[in-house]
Specification:
Layout: E1 2-5, H1 7-19, H2 21-35, E2 47-48, E3 53-58, E4 68-76, E5 80-89
Parallel strand pairs: 1-5
Antiparallel strand pairs: 2-3, 3-4, 4-5
Helix pairs in contact: 1-2
Amino acid sequence: MLVEYSEDAADKLDFYEREDRQLYDALYEIFDLIGAGSRESFLRSHYLRPPGAYAVEVDVRGRSTDDRYYIFWAEEPGDVAFVKAIAATRTRLF
């Protein structure tokens, strides 16, 4: 599956690559699974609207903060996974 990014998501990835490599690596672990077409249930267990849109919580190993990180992505025609947003919050979404 081809993984593409919104402009906002790409900008955040660029920032994390420079400023928070641990988070950047954790995000890319998820992107690699999505790109490989993994059927891991956690990738598609939190459905959003429209159908085929998902939210995934990202675990940053060794980080002990209240921050939660999420990837919002959607399956699109042509075997494309489109990352719409990457978000950080102190509130657990699910």
